[in-house]
Amino acid sequence: MQFKLSIPTIGQAKSFLAQAGVIGFVYFITAYLGTFITPYIDAISFFELPAIALAAALAVRYGWTGILGCVLGSLLFHLLKMPWQLAAALAIGSGIASFIFNYLLRLFHPSAVTINQVSTVATFAFIAAPIASAVHAIISILSMKWLGFTSLDSMAQTVLTWWFSELLLAYLTVPLLLSIFASQKVNFQLQEKLEMGTAFVAMVIVSWLTLKYGQMLASSEIIIFVLLAFVLLAALRFKTIVTHAAIFIAALIAFTSLIFNVEHIHSELYSHAAFTLKVGLIPMALGGLFVASAFSERHNAEAELNKLANHDPLTSLPNRTYFQQFLTHSLAQAYRQKQQVYLLFIDLDRFKKINDSEGHELGDAVLRLIARRLNEILRADDFVARLGGDEFAVVYTHPPVNNAASNLARKIIGIVSESFELEGRRYSVGASIGISVYPNDATDAHALLRHADLAMYQAKSKRSGFEYFSEEMNVFAHEQLEIENGLRQALEKGELLLMYQPKVDLRTNQVVGLEALVRWLTNAGVLTSPDKFIPIAEETGLIVPIGRFVIREACEQWVRWHEARLNPPPVAVNISPRQFSDLSLIADILEIIKTTGMNPAMLNVEITESATMDDPEMTMEILAEMRALNLHLYIDDFGTGHSNLGQLRRLPIDAVKIDKSFINDVLTNNDDAEIVTAIINLAHALKIRVVSEGIETKAQLAFLRELGCDEIQGFLVSKPVSHSQVETFFNKTIKL
């Protein structure tokens, strides 16, 4: 219990007093009804049976409010039959005892609200309950002695008797009361209900027979062992609240059986039998509490292990394993009921950028936030899981309308895309969703998930938000898989080669550079278009070793030309966005330059505009390191990204390359013509050279000459050719 001094508001004070008043009334009614039970358990008439046990539970559950309520209820109860001085003293004693009980329990278990752990039972049984009961008994007897209601001769025995009776009531009732206060609705299966009902009836019958046909004192001992068996059965079979109830019911049955089998409850025989019974009830109660708590801990440990095995520890959502099990079960149920099941595969957009740039801790916070948002918008019978990374999946059963899956996908995209604030900054992510339908697209869980995954990639590539699976996607996926596997083998088998396309200076018409372009020629002589394998290489990460091969091969070839005294022009290599973000890029280039003997001033590096815009600060660092190596830097596909003048001015580049898409229609499309004109003027204003690629006609050439473009490359000059063919362009003036 924490001691914090604060001034409550009027509303808080009213609420506090109202709750205390209600608790006090409940305490008073309990204590008053207890006066009718006192003779049957051979307790002292002043004893507030069983209200003092209720006070302990209320103190744990409601804190200071419960303690004040108990004091008020005790005061009201005692004022019915004794002077106010003694009533006040006994009421204060009840409050002190309940406070001590709560304090001792909280001292060892600050967050305990029930008695359902072995350590909590030990603290309750051997520390909190005995000490609190002893304090209450001593305060009560001393108060009565001080006011002349008892003598010193019988005080020790009275304290002991009071303490023993109060301790027994605490063992029998406090765990049950705390379980009732803390428990939520408990659902029992029919078999469990039958077992509990049978056990209760058996307890009553066996107890009655034991006392009916046995010797009185011996029967009191025997009945404890009989009831203990039923209590242990409850501890082994049911939740702890059932065990707590079984302990209390067993005590009621024991005393009821004793009452109905003895003619005079005020006789010495009854007192001896009742005492024997009370002594036996204590180990029965403690045995049940400890066994139930031990099994509760085991059950909780198993439940925690099961949760760890089936749930994602970061978001607490079901994991991939649990998802597969649930989806399989849902499909089996849908098969029996002739229903459809929709599977929505969700992949977050722009999450990787946040995770890489801001750190994994913030990335984890984003995933937790997205998980909460998904849970908020889904129905109770929908199922959402985290499959790994930034991938989630929703199993959507019993759709209310035909287009419900589309509506849900739009809803998910909308709520995921809402911006959010973390650590003082605002962020936003998006979502691409693939949808597959049972039984239309697949009849087993693995195929349904794979098809939803394919649809998601289609949605991501088309930036359409969500897509439904189609068989064409399956064919396309198989083609991509074949290309991916072939690429891996191509690196090992040496099936990749470089072609070279010359660049011409429009002022001198001389070849001033070469662009190295990778091609894939299988041993069977099949040439695969780079438009097919480069995107797959980029997506799978194979572009990194392929890019490393291109740089090394281009450098080695340039060195061979140089050693042959062919006076080769600079050679340019392309760095893909995936390769540009690779942490080993600079080290790889430096190692290749050293091992091949390449002159770094003759190596040009072309980087796409979009790659430089993803992280401007990192781009500046990488380009600065390249510049320090004496490399020449080009921005490729310029005009297709979203760079601005300020960013372009900061970049340490030598030239920009106008993308072919603007050159194609430059003579017929005014917008393209204006864009090309603006790029050339802007670059020249910044003292940056301009290279136009994809030049195929003399008319395009004339247009670019007029604008003052510096260099061109394209089929008008030459298509990409082999290293031996491109040698014919060295040191020559091209007729254009």
From TrEMBL:
KW Phosphoprotein (keyword) present: no
Keywords associated with the record: Cell membrane, Membrane, Transmembrane, Transmembrane helix
Compartments reported by the entry: Cell membrane
Xref: PANTHER family: BIOFILM ARCHITECTURE MAINTENANCE PROTEIN MBAA, DIGUANYLATE CYCLASE DGCP
Pfam families per the UniProt record, alphabetical: EAL, GGDEF, MASE1
Main location per the UniProt record: membrane
Lipid bilayer topology: Multi-pass membrane protein
Domain called EAL: residue spans: 480-734
Identification of the protein by name: Diguanylate cyclase/phosphodiesterase
GO cellular component, one term: plasma membrane
Transmembrane regions listed in the UniProt entry: 20-41, 53-80, 86-108, 120-142, 162-182, 217-236, 241-260, 272-295
Molecular function in Gene Ontology: catalytic activity
Organism of provenance: Methylotenera versatilis (strain 301)
Domain GGDEF as annotated: residue spans: 339-471
Gene3D superfamilies: 3.30.70.270, EAL domain (3.20.20.450)
